[in-house]
């Protein structure tokens, strides 16, 4: 740590007893390094006192700081008692006050008078109103803005007065109070202060430093570099150049120090990376080039805090890590569950009758749970998915989840105070479960947040809505992070840019060096326009850019190896543009810069097909399968042998998933089950016109029975696309019945013989000593004018029902999934002609497609060959499945435009 070493040597030369000094730093991070330097210098005296500049200002002001929730509640009480119009409730107040408060603090810190700025804003809006005819309507945006600043000229002075009465102060008020006391403090203090490594000061901080310098009770050590200090165009040196002009720096007191380190030889590499997380994948390659494998003089600087988990994943080989930056609490699983809980409460306020399953499932998934809770949740999911319940009634939720340990959190809260108590109790309980350390910290932070909010709310009598409580918790959580413990003096340092202040590293690796991350860009959350900020010397994005530029150049000026990575892909708010600071170095510095382009290293999954050999156990399962072979088994094999293996050999089944919109499969089932109900009543009868006419009238009744069979709730079909699907299903059923009605009207004799005809143990010989047995269900068997019709219902359109089979293609004719409909009909034909009740009858097989219901049954036709030839081809397909030398090989579907 070159800069800190230099300061310590200078102070030891002045006084071997460092306890005489008060060292003032921009942040607390360097203190541990100063202690290490003192140890290396064999210093054995008392340590100096350490302060941040904020702590010193607070000490001088002697005010009780107030911020966050406690300030918002107090401010709202003041606002409410003033009776201003509009009479915002607390949730509306929170939409504008936090932004206004930051602006107010800026005004108090940087301007001479906050009242002058507020009056200026009001006057400017009045001039704009005078120049435009705004009419009498208060809803005109400019009129509302005028009223806003008129109210703020009343509200903020009153708020300041009420805070002063309690000796409370916002950060801006603390600066304002300190300003009046600085002269007396500088004159009367007997202490000596050392200001280290500062760049930008607020006016009050500058006044403090200069006053102490004038009384010879302070000294300043700046870390500047000729590269950006001497060049007026370099924004990084903007504030330091101004400090150099202070009259306190003269022949007797030099401006310390301006170095010339940036122009020393450096290895600078710029990496253009395709993807945000992909940047972290480059880290192991960079580490491999660092000679010191303890990485004790290496820093990884993350400009995007969300990259921390991915960075840690690739650093598993690094023995010592020290993480200075915190991980945002808002990104953890328990935080997401709490957000979902509040969202659920808001939904319950709108709809008291039922729960949307997507509002419940994420909560049950994310919240920590006991083994007992796991069982209850598993049973709940199974029941809901099995019955495809999209909107869960309160009664059903209570029936299935009432034994859940945190069931009360899922019910509509009577009051926000009660809900806070329930959340606090829940956090206390789950900390006793076996959860990992990060989750424990996550839960503990929330328990603390809930307690703070409860305590802060207790003195006030205004009503807090659930939405407002959610805002309060989000505001608190968004500013919180989980701190990591490590060894700060050994190993690799992982930090944010602000944590690097005063520290120097030989190897610097910066990730997300993108425009918008470094610097942050010109978007400021403020109500005060840019020109007015400039007029009153308030900081704008230009000053913020200068501050970030200084941190960037200062960090790399003492380094030897610099790696700058940026995400070149545009997505979301990321423009894929490298930081202007990289461009500046490329164009203005004397350093040779190596450019590398890193493509996303995620290769597409190898398209090698899965291959499963027919081991002994697989062959045993296939022997068992031969006893019950279904036509659908063979079509499954044609579609993909691996699907056949999974379902018929491993006996796996697809998991149930809730359908918000009826799937193709269940749409087919809805029509199928409805037709089954219709014709079950007509089974065994020669149909008459009246039978079919009555059936057409009762279609809705049959559909309702089918819905029960599907275990769906009737409400599922009451609105949206599902209402349309039901209407289409009704039309299809009507078309089927109408087609049959027209046949009867035309004088045809139509008799329904069987519906969902089950068959089994129909033997089919592969050779004289080997056979399989067919089983399955035939959707409909009827007799039309004496001809037996075997009918299969299909949701899909009819395809390839004309068979052309001869000696050239008989071996593999049905080895083609395009012919699976014909394959199925051939098996049904074979089965029916072998059933005793149908011997000797002329047979016709066909498909009735729901997609073309008006066409009626489309029959299987043989252009070449006959049913015996077809079954020979079926036999070859079955022999292929049974062949122990042929593995199950995945069919990879190729997709082409």
From TrEMBL:
Residues spanning the membrane: none
Q: Matching Pfam families, A to Z? A: PDDEXK_1 (PF12705)
InterPro entries recorded for this chain?
A: P-loop_NTPase (IPR027417), PDDEXK-like_dom_sf (IPR011604), PDDEXK_AddAB-type (IPR038726), Restrct_endonuc-II-like (IPR011335)
User: What sequence ranges are listed for the domain PD-(D/E)XK endonuclease-like?
Assistant: 629-888
Name the source's superkingdom. Bacteria
- What name does the UniProt record give this protein? PD-(D/E)XK endonuclease-like domain-containing protein
């Amino acid at each position: 740590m070159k800069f800190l070493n230099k300061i310590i040597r200078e102070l030891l030369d002045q006084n071997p007893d460092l306890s005489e000094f008060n060292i003032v730093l921009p942040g607390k991070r360097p203190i541990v390094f100063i202690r290490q330097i003192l140890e290396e210098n064999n210093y054995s005296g008392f340590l100096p006192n350490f302060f941040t500049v904020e702590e010193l200002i607070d000490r001088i002001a002697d005010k009780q700081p107030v911020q966050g929730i406690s300030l918002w509640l107090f401010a709202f009480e003041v606002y409410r008692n003033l009776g201003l119009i509009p009479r915002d409730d607390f949730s509306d107040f929170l939409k504008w006050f936090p932004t206004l408060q930051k602006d107010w603090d800026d005004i108090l810190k940087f301007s001479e008078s906050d009242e002058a700025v507020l009056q200026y804003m009001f006057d400017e809006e009045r001039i704009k109103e005078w120049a435009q005819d705004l009419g009498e309507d208060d809803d005109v945006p400019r009129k509302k803005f005028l009223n806003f600043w008129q109210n703020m000229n009343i509200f903020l002075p009153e708020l300041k007065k009420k805070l002063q009465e309690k000796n409370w102060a916002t950060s801006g008020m603390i600066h304002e109070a300190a300003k009046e006391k600085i002269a007396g403090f500088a004159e009367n203090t007997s202490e000596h202060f050392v200001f280290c490594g500062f760049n930008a000061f607020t006016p009050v901080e500058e006044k403090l430093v200069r006053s102490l310098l004038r009384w010879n009770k302070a000294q300043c050590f700046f870390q500047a570099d000729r590269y950006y200090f001497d060049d007026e165009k370099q924004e990084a040196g903007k504030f330091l150049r101004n400090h150099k002009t202070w009259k306190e720096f003269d022949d007797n007191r030099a401006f310390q120090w301006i170095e010339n380190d940036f122009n020393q030889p450096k290895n600078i590499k710029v990496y253009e990376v395709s993807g945000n997380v992909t940047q972290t994948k480059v880290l192991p390659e960079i580490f491999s080039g660092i000679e010191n494998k303890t990485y004790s003089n290496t820093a990884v600087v993350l400009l995007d805090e969300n990259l921390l988990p991915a960075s840690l994943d690739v650093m598993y080989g690094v023995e010592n890590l020290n993480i200075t930056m915190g991980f945002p609490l808002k990104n953890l699983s328990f935080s997401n569950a709490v957000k979902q809980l509040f969202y659920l409460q808001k939904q319950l306020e709108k709809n008291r009758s039922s729960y949307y399953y997507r509002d419940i499932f994420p909560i049950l998934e994310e919240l920590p749970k006991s083994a007992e809770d796991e069982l209850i949740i598993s049973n709940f999911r199974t029941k809901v998915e099995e019955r495809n319940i999209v909107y869960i009634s309160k009664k059903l939720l209570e029936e299935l989840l009432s034994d859940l340990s945190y069931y009360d959190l899922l019910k509509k809260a009577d009051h926000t105070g009660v809900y806070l108590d329930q959340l606090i109790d829940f956090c206390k309980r789950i900390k006793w479960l076996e959860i990992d350390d990060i989750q424990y910290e996550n839960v503990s932070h929330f328990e603390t947040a809930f307690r703070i909010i409860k305590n802060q709310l207790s003195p006030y009598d205004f009503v807090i809505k659930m939405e407002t409580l959610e805002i309060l918790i989000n505001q608190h959580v968004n500013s919180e992070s989980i701190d990591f413990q490590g060894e700060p003096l050994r190993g690799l340092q992982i930090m944010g840019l602000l944590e690097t202040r005063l520290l120097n590293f030989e190897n610097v690796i910066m990730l997300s060096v993108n425009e918008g991350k470094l610097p942050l860009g010109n978007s400021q959350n403020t109500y005060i326009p840019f020109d007015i900020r400039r007029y009153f010397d308030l900081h704008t994005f230009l000053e913020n850019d200068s501050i970030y530029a200084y941190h960037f150049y200062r960090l790399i000026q003492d380094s030897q190896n610099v790696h700058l990575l940026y995400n070149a892909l545009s997505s979301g708010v990321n423009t894929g543009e490298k930081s202007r600071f990289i461009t500046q170095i490329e164009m203005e510095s004397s350093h040779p810069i190596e450019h590398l382009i890193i493509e996303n290293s995620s290769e597409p999954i190898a398209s090698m097909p899965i291959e499963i050999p027919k081991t002994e156990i697989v062959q045993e399962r296939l022997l068992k399968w031969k006893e019950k072979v279904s036509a659908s088994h063979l079509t499954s094999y044609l579609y993909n042998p691996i699907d056949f293996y999974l379902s018929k050999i491993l006996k796996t089944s697809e998991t149930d998933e809730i359908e918000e919109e009826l799937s193709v499969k269940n749409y087919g089932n809805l029509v199928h089950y409805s037709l089954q109900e219709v014709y079950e009543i007509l089974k065994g009868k020669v149909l008459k016109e009246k039978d079919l006419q009555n059936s057409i009238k009762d279609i809705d009744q049959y559909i309702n029975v089918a819905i029960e069979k599907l275990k769906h709730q009737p409400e599922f079909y009451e609105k949206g696309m599902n209402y349309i699907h039901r209407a289409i299903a009704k039309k299809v059923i009507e078309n089927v019945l109408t087609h049959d009605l027209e046949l009867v009207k035309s004088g045809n004799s139509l008799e329904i013989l069987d519906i969902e005809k089950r068959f089994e143990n129909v033997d089919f010989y592969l050779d004289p000593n080997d056979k399989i047995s067919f089983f399955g269900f035939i959707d409909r068997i009827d007799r039309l004018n004496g001809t037996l019709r075997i009918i299969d219902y299909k949701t899909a359109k009819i395809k390839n029902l004309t068979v052309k089979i001869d000696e050239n293609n008989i071996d593999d004719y049905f080895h083609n999934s395009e012919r699976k409909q014909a394959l199925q009909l051939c098996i049904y034909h074979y089965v029916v002609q072998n059933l005793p009740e149908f011997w000797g009858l002329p047979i016709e097989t066909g498909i009735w497609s729901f997609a073309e219901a008006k066409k009626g049954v489309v029959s299987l036709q043989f252009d070449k060959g006959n049913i015996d030839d077809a079954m020979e081809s079926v036999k070859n397909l079955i022999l292929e499945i049974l062949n122990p030398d042929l593995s199950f090989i995945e069919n990879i579907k190729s997709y082409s435009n």
